[in-house]
Amino acid sequence: MIQRQKPFGFTVQHAAPALSIVAPAYNERENIRPLVHAIAHAMGEMTWELIIVDDDSPDGTAREIAALAGEGAPVRCIRRVGRRGLASAVVEGVLAATSELIAVIDADLQHDETRLPVMLDLLKTTDVDLVIGSRHVAGGGVGEWNQHRQRMSRVATWIAHRLAGVRVSDPMSGFFAVRQSVVEATIYDLSQQGYKILLDILTASQRPLKVAEVGYVFRERHAGTSKLDVVVLIEYAFLLIDKLTRGLIPPRFVLFCAIGGLGLMCHIAVLDVAIGQGVSFLRAQGIATLCAMAFNYVLNNAITYRSARLKGVRFVLGYLVFSAVCSLGALANISVANLTLNEMGSWPLAGIAGALMSSVFNFGVATHFVWRP
Ligand code: GDD
Ligand code: MN
C-alpha cells in the first residue's frame, strides 16, 4: 500500500479503506467540512472513505466536497442530476463503495460519528449483517426533539413493528453499518421509496438478518434545514404499500389514482360553482375539466413525480403533453365503458372499467412521456 501524507493531514491510501461511509446530502454545504473533520477525528488511525451522494444541491454542496477532496480528504461526490430521494441516494452510495463494510450516516451531523469505530468493529469481529444506530437502546436518545416529532416517530415505529413485522428497536434510523453484499442481495427487492432505507433493507431480505444495535443520541441540527415534510410521510405510507402488496402495485400508481380521485372532487366543485353562476352545462364542464387537469398536473408534479419534478419552461410543456395524454385517456375511458356496457349491461361496472382504463393509460403514458424517469 502506498501512503502519502498531505498538508490537510489525511493519509492518502491506494487500497480499499476499512470502512466506506455513505452520506446522502441535499443542501448541506455548511455541514460537509465539519462532518469530514468529525469523521476523521472519530476514525483515528483507521482507514475510511466518505461518499457523499448529492442530488445536485443548489447551495453548492458538490463544490465544497470537491474542495475538500482537493485538500486531500478521502471524500468524493456522487452527483445526481434531476433526481431526488434519500433512500435511492443511499443505495447508489453503497454500490459505489470500495469497501465491503459500509456505514450510512446523515450529512447534517445529527448522527453520532463517534459510534462508527464500534459499528465497524462489530462488523469485523462478529457475523452480524447489520449494526443499527438506535435511539431506543441503552446509550441512545432523541435529544432535543419536540413532543410532536417524538409522537410521529413513535407512530411510524409502531407501524413498522406491526405491519412490516420488523423486530429491531429503531427501524426508522438512518444511521447504520452494513455489509455491501447484504444490500446487493436485496437490491432487486428494494423499494427505494422515501426516507426509510433501513426498513426497506430489513424487509427486503430473503433471510432474517443478524442485527446488532448500538445506542446513539440524535443531535440537534446546527446548519441547514431538515427535508422531512408531508411528502416524506406520504412516501413512508407508500413504502409500506409496496411491502404489503409485494411490489405488485407500484406505489406511484396508487398515488396517481388518489390524486385522480381528488381531481374528480375538484371537477365536481368547479362544475357546481359554474352552473350556480348561470354558465351553460357544456361550458361549465369544459372549465371544470381544465381545472381538474391543472389540479392533477400540479399535484402529480409536486408529489407523485417529485424526484423528476418539472420546472420553468418544461413545466409548461409538460402540462401541454399531460393535457393531451388525459384527453386520449378520456377517449379510452368512454370506449371501454361503452364496450363493457354493451357486453355486460351494467352501468356501474362499465363506469369502473372505463375509469380503470383511463387511470392505467394516463399513468403509463404520463410516466413515460411527461415525467421521464
Ligand atoms: N441525496 C439526497 N437526496 N439527500 C437527502 C435528500 C434527498 O432527496 N433528502 C434528505 N437528504 C439528506 C439530508 O441532506 C441529510 O443529510 C439526510 O438526508 C437526512 O435528512 P434530514 O432532512 O436532515 O432528515 P431528518 O433529520 O428530519 O431525519 C432523520 O431522522 C430520521 C429518523 O427519525 C434522518 O436521520 C433519517 O435518516 C432518519 O430516518
Ligand atoms: Mn437531519
UniProtKB/TrEMBL annotation:
It is found in: Membrane. InterPro entries: DPM1-like (IPR039528), Glyco_trans_2-like (IPR001173), GtrA_DPMS_TM (IPR007267), Nucleotide-diphossugar_trans (IPR029044). Signal peptide: none annotated. SUPFAM superfamilies: Nucleotide-diphospho-sugar transferases (SSF53448). It comes from the Bacteria. GO terms for molecular function: dolichyl-phosphate beta-D-mannosyltransferase activity. It is a multi-pass membrane protein. Belongs to the glycosyltransferase 2 family. This is Dolichol-phosphate mannosyltransferase.
